[in-house]
Design brief:
about 15% strand; alpha/beta; binds guanosine-5'-diphosphate
Amino acid sequence: LVPILLHFLYTAATPYTSLPAVLLIGPPGAGKTALLTLFERGPFYHNKEDTADANNNGKPTVTTPVSETHTTQVPHAVELAVSSPSSADPTSPGHVASYQTDLDAAGAQAKKFLLVDTPGHPKLRGRALAALAQDTPTIAVAPSPAAAAASSPGAPDAGNPPSKVKAVVFVVDAAALADSDAPYLAAAAEHLHDALLALQRRHRARKGSRAPPAVPVLVAANKLDLFTALPAALVKSHLEAEIGRIRRARSKGLLSSDRHDADGLDADEDEADAWLGSYGSDKFSFKEMLEFDIEVDVLGGNVVGEGPGADKWWRWIAERL
Ligand code: GDP
């Protein structure tokens, strides 16, 4: 009994126990780390212009970046809280409070979650995709420096229990997408294609009639502060067109290979498994993913500069936790 109690106490004291996770993925340079930092600063985030503002209510201002682009092999996570829809933001009743709202001060009910950044290293990209391919996607994250410091040095390194992935945010640079000659669109679309296919395959691989837990995907069209950036509607259509090209090209690759005969697998079954969206459809549309219970939304925003900001993304996340 004692070891069980000790284990219980230990896990209860671990800050990461079973908090739901939201996974940030996307091409390097899209703004994942910048977004993580923005949300981490939360109510303490101020633009330089706001500093002189009398509405600061004496909140401390964070002047040093909380997170920086990192080169570790383990995904990095920050613990965040959203107001639950029942406890409305006093300034916008019935809605999720902005990430800039101090939930403690507002007396709101908070729901905690982990925002997990997967650095652009190809190895880690593979790890994030592998995580999404699980029936119930989970991801193990590195403890925050604070949590690591809080655990006593002699404590057994049990590792963090993996967190259930509740949603995926695919961050893309909408200004880089505007340049149709650049390889950026092809690379970004391939990354998104692979992530969606990993999620889709869970449906075929499932045992019995039980559907795997739904994992919605937000395509965050970032950098809309730049006048060269594509609006969200065009980011959507460009990605859909490119993903359509990718799945056609891959399907031809499958047909030309002779592996179907070699291993006796049902060729149709095999090809359908590798085909993203409605099998055999001509043009790809994100709506097709609903067949597999995968909701895909494309919302524009920006982390730095003047523009629509990041509140839409925050609300999207909050509504899916
Ligand atoms: P990551 O590789 O996806 O983590 O990308 P980073 O967060 O490191 O961002 C890459 C670069 O894009 C940095 O120089 C950021 O300052 C910049 N950046 C991020 N978000 C925005 C944005 O909304 N607008 C503009 N103009 N630049 C941004």
